[in-house]
Structure formats: structure tokens, C-alpha cells
Design brief:
By secondary structure, the protein is of the alpha+beta class. The protein is built from four helices and eleven strands; from the N terminus they run E-H-E-E-E-H-E-E-E-H-H-E-E-E-E. It has a single domain (8-183), classed as Pyruvoyl-Dependent Histidine Decarboxylase, subunit B (Pyruvoyl-Dependent Histidine Decarboxylase, Chain B), CATH 3.50.20. Helices cover 22% and strands 42% of the residues. The strands form two sheets. The chain has a six-stranded antiparallel β-sheet with strand order 3-7-6-10-9-8. A five-stranded mixed β-sheet has the order 2-5-11-1-4.
């Protein structure tokens, strides 16, 4: 049996503008560097021992037509000047032998920073709940250490990627996306 557990993962993001909604999505995929893949959306588990690599290294590992597993957040609008955003958050235990959680968030009226912070908090909260831990992101986050510390002294590392854009001034479709790309090799 073939093992489909990802060994590597990278984050990417993009934005696209076009008069057709689908083509604005395609242009956002191009901006993110993953337009040549057949994307399969998966849920939110970050595998144990999965290595996070750079976007550049990850894109170089992709081949045209490849089935590629992703956690994707996207938002689109054709309303001029409307702020849209998409973010992916990751929370993983400091112990890399345990699994983590990936969250996707998409919103209207949020900046990159706000969407990014929300996605990280969401991933950390989801991970804590699977471990039976109550987590309040406002009190668990240690800004100096850049880590979540829970009531049972468990520590989570987090990161995120986000993209925002204002709807095109001429009413073209605007699409933003944030993606965690999972690689089997």
C-alpha cells in the first residue's frame, strides 16, 4: 500500500484580477506558483515529522499535472475597493513527533495581520481541544517567546501566511488565496 503521509510542506499565497471569476482564481494560483498542479483540498492535520521547506524549494519539487494535496483558503469579490483576505495558520507541538493542526480563514474587511493572527489562534485552539486542553489565545500567547503555553504547560509553535487585497477599482474579479502545499516526497 502506498503511504500518502506528507513528508514536506510549504506555504504560499497569491492574488489575481480578471473580468472572469475563474480566471482571477487561475491568476492567483499563478501568483502563488502552483498553477501547474491538480489541487486536492484536504483537511487540517499537520503530520508528525513533516518538514516545512521554503516556497522556492517546494515549487521546484512540483511537476506539471501532479496531484497535489493542499489546505487552501480563498476569498473573492468583484466589488470595487472591498478588502478581502485569506490565511492559513499552523500550530504544532514543540515535540515534532506529535501531529499539529492547520486552519484556513477567509474574510472581508480584514488586513493581512488580523487574518494571519486569527488563523494562528484558530489552529492553536483546535490543537489544544484535541488534547483536552482549554486554550484562550489571549492569555496563552507568549509574545517574547513566540509560543503558546497551555494550562498543562504544553507548548505549541505557530506560523501563518496570509494574502489580502482590495477589490479592483474597475470591478474586475479579485481573488486572494493562502495555501499549505503538502508534498509526499
Amino acid at each position: 500500500m502506498y503511504n500518502l503521509t506528507p513528508k514536506r510542506m510549504f506555504f504560499t499565497k497569491g492574488v489575481g484580477y480578471h473580468r472572469n471569476k475563474l480566471q482571477s482564481f487561475e491568476l492567483a494560483l499563478r501568483d502563488a506558483g502552483i498553477e501547474k498542479c491538480n489541487l486536492v483540498s484536504v483537511s487540517s492535520i499537520y503530520p508528525p515529522d513533516c518538514k516545512i521547506i521554503s516556497k522556492e524549494k517546494g515549487i521546484n519539487m512540483l511537476t506539471p499535472g501532479q496531484i497535489t494535496f493542499v489546505v487552501i483558503a480563498k476569498e473573492c469579490t468583484n466589488e470595487p475597493n472591498r478588502l478581502i483576505s485569506a490565511a492559513i495558520g499552523l500550530a504544532q507541538p514543540k515535540d515534532k513527533k506529535q501531529y499539529g493542526y492547520i486552519s484556513e480563514h477567509h474574510a472581508f474587511g480584514e488586513t493581512v495581520r488580523k487574518s494571519s493572527d486569527f488563523a494562528e489562534d484558530l489552529a492553536a485552539t483546535m490543537l489544544a481541544s484535541t488534547l483536552g486542553i482549554e486554550l484562550d489565545p489571549n492569555t496563552a500567547w507568549d509574545e517574547r517567546k513566540k509560543i503558546y503555553i497551555t494550562e498543562k504547560n504544553r507548548q505549541f509553535i505557530s506560523r501563518s501566511t496570509a494574502q489580502s487585497a482590495q477589490g479592483h477599482k474597475d470591478g474586475l474579479w479579485t481573488t486572494v488565496l493562502a495555501v499549505a502545499v503538502m508534498l509526499l516526497q
